[in-house]
Amino acid sequence: MAKMIPLERIKDNPWRDYQRNPKDNNKVDILAESIDTTKEFWEGVYGREVGDFVELAFGHHRLDAARQQGLKEIPITIRKFTDGEMLVWMIRENTNGEFLVVLEATSAAVKALGAGKIEMEAIDPKTRKDFLRFAPSFVEGEEPSGTPGVPHPYTADTLAHFLGRKYFRPTSKKASNSVRAALGVLELEERKVPGFSMDALLKNNEQDDVEERVKTYKPAKEIIGIVTNVKRDEVFAKAEDGKRVAAINKDIAKQEALQAEAKAHEEKARLEREALIHKQLAAKVEEDTKEIARLAQKMREQAANAKLKQIADSEKLTALNAKIAEAKKKAEEAKVEDAYAPVRRDVERFLFRVSNVSTGSFCEDTKALARLPLSAGDRERLRQAVLKLGTWYCEWVAMQFIPPVSGKKELKEMKARELANRRKEEAAAKAAEETARRERVAAKAVAKKKTKESK
Question: Does domain 1-93 match CATH 3.40.50.10740?
């Protein structure tokens, strides 16, 4: 039986995630208008008592509508729900298939499985290991290592069966595209993959004010394709980065080998010098002046050769250091180039569409209409209409690619464009009116001439 609960004692479902699935203010306004019209609040809202408060199982939009209408209390049917039951009731209530609802339900179910609040059906032993995930993680094919507690494996199919019939295909029992798309997005967010954001999944993504427009997401099949492309680009970037690191490491190894060789040459020269010194001392003892002179000359020659070798080694090291620095610089530039690759593809696709616009049906319709025996006035009207449309379209497209300007400057430019367009329209209207007048005068003259001839 329902109990009247004051609004200040009502809390949201602990699994409700407004960050992933924000409230629909339009839906709240519709419910509030219904309450205002019928003067009644619908029964059928369930919840559980937690201390002095009541947590909703579902009905959060209805609660906001009641607050908007100034109600002080609403009827709630109280039951002893577990945490898992609170999640199930919330999921089964929201079965409209919207992507944000599926994303919220998927995230909450995996977190609940990881916390041991719910259970899912056993996994088929034949399931490939790279299809497994381990709650509370969303990463596919990555087993937990060093994580305390019992692992909680699941797959997209077992998760879909837990969420309910809305989330899997009745014939194959496989997870729906919406569940697979949600898991893919959650995995990219968990791994913080560069170049990915939720804005990439939106329709009408060319609008400027992201916060005020209604966020409408692409179909689940397109989202799966976007996730797949991001993963592929990530693998490609890692492979290219690995090649660049290997090349740099190879040059560093050469550098270390050259340094070791130079050190060995220095040590050899030192030993040879010490040996000659000992020989020189022996020659002095034997008072062999000629041998002393010869040994001294040889020492000078060896010292000069060692100096030349040291200079050559230093030049090689300098050149190798410059090569390594250049390789690192190119590696950084390549990373930037790889990150910009998805944007460049979109630019090339747009340019291709612009360059092939003449093949459209609009051009064929225009050619067909131009072949008809049109009057001069109609031809002028058609020409002015197309010129006006072309001018507006070119200016609109060009405005999308210019840097933003200040508010005052943008307003001034807008007024100038409006004035120019108005003048063009007035000139076109006058020209069309003049053409029509001339046609009427010509028609009257022809009629008058025919009248005279008949008399």
Answer: no
